[in-house]
Amino acid sequence: MSEIYDDQTFFKAYGKLPRSLDGLKVAGEWPALKRLIPDLKGKKVLDLGCGYGWHCQYFAENGAEVIGLDASEKMIAQARQKNNHQNITYVVGSMENLDFPSEQFDFPSEQFDLVFSSLTIHYLADFPKLVQDVRRILRPSGQFLFSVEHPIYTSRKEQDFIYDANGQALFFPVDNYFKTGARQTHFLGSPVEKFHRTVEDFIEPLLENGFSLRHLVEPVPTSEVIQQFHWENELRRPMMLIISAEKKIMTPKNHDEN
Amino acid sequence: MSEIYDDQTFFKAYGKLPRSLDGLKVAGEWPALKRLIPDLKGKKVLDLGCGYGWHCQYFAENGAEVIGLDASEKMIAQARQKNNHQNITYVVGSMENLDFPSEQFDFPSEQFDLVFSSLTIHYLADFPKLVQDVRRILRPSGQFLFSVEHPIYTSRKEQDFIYDANGQALFFPVDNYFKTGARQTHFLGSPVEKFHRTVEDFIEPLLENGFSLRHLVEPVPTSEVIQQFHWENELRRPMMLIISAEKKIMTPKNHDEN
Question: Closest Cα of chain A to B178: distance in Å?
Fold first, then answer.
């Protein structure tokens, strides 16, 4: 997983993004994501790759006890300043191994009602392992809700439209869709390694590991946000995918399913 | 829904397709589709848009009692000749209204174990209505299994790669992804109206209408078929989507779900 978020140049550029400065209200996918968040009152929530902690703050303000996990010390330092609700515990640690995310911390089984992740899983090489880890730490009927860059958006490392001579976007190109794995991309001027997977690659590991799908949403920014940032091209290709899945209570029937 | 399949010119061209001549063994998606077909012994199966009846024949040969429904009289006439297993009943009728698909036929509730459709639903304007109809005629725990052209493949009416001056495919273009609805496309030299929908548009109506998702598969032809027909470009973009869903047995808990 990329530790780019601890790079000084990248970190500065990231800090100037609208969503870094102003949080959820300028994140195009937030209205769609918010609708899928279950009741938070008295619930235990884990935010994987919590960044500046905007989502942690939302969960805490709505009654949850929250753990925000991020591999970047710089991010966690910012989160502790910007989004410091008393019911949030920030932890520097990796989501690649939720058995031992950090030396100071571990996650006993079946303790969370919601495991959440915003735009981090496309940095992760092994999604099926994450699904198994999340399943272990979720309570029965607990939910796994996450957003990722859409497989259409990640298929080519350029992650951009094709433009004509006047700079008008012609269409969004897809290629090597079934050649999944690492992509050496650029984000905010810095090289970043992301992992491309298909839609199937997101869904089947959930269904195979004791989850039932609750929602699959391809979010589009609200018309206000589209206007504010001139994001009309957002309607031309999917950029994000939001998935909500519930940990099934195991019964003999569930175990027999193919 | 397009009645193109009763057009003489189109029908002749369709009859020369590998899959029309040689059936399932040359259909690139068949190995993936076949794996998702449940046990057929003694089961009742409905094939929506059965065409030449290749799938009906497979279902019947594996022990099912089968109804093959197709809006095209020409298709049904061919099916009766080519795939005439005694346990298949072919019916000319529309899948747009499964309450009254034809004057001679109706479908009582909860009679099928499997409702199947191969590459027909992208001709259909109203998918949520189909889902509700299928739910009604399926037995509890019955399955709805279908293949469609992938939303990536249907977003632009051209449905083709962008080529360079030497005729080499550069990439597959996506556009107007969120502008769902009719597309005036061409298939085998004839104009055909198809309906573009997003991945979300296929999944959410199932989850909202009492189905649980069993599988979401983006099939790739076997390496043998890729070699035989020089289909290397099939690995560059998804062309088909296969979805398998199960009719949930309603409980008070299911009814409460959002």
Answer: 5
Instruction: Name which of A62-71, A161-170, B63-72, B92-101 the model is least confident about.
Output: B92-101
Write out the two tokens for A218: 């391809």
Contact across the interface for B212 and A216, Cβ inside 8 Å: no
Angstrom distance (rounded) from CA A244 to CA B2: 35
Give the closest-approach CA distance of A258 to chain B in angstroms.
Answer: 9
Residues B47/B75, Cβ–Cβ less than 8 Å: no
Q: What's the pLDDT tens digit per position in A145-174? A: 999 999 999 999 999 999 999 999 999 999
| DSSP class per residue in A82-128 | HS--TTEEEEE--TT-TTSSBTTB---SS-EEEEEEES-GGG-S-HH
Of A200, A214, A241, the CB nearest to B218: A200
**Residues in chain A whose beta carbon is closer than 8 A to a beta carbon of chain B?**
152, 155-156, 162, 170-179, 198-200, 203-204, 207, 212-218, 220, 235-238, 241, 257
What sign does the CA torsion over A113, A116, A122, A123 have? Answer: negative
Q: Are B5 and B11 in contact (CB under 8 A)?
A: yes
b vs e for B154-179, b when ≥16 Cβ sit within 10 Å of the residue's Cβ?
A: bbbbebebeeeeeeeeebbbbbbbbe
Q: Which of B143, B97, B96, B157 is nearest to B123 (CA)?
A: B96
pLDDT bracket for residue A228 (50, 70, 90): confident
Q: Quick one: average pLDDT of B124-128? A: 96
* Paired residues of A186 in beta bridges: A191
pLDDT at B255 over 80: no
Give the residue from chain B lying closest to A237, CA to CA.
B177
CB atoms within 10 A of CB A14: 22
pLDDT grade for A86, boundaries at 50, 70 and 90: very high
Which residues in chain B are closer than 8 Å to A176, comparing Cβ atoms? 235-236
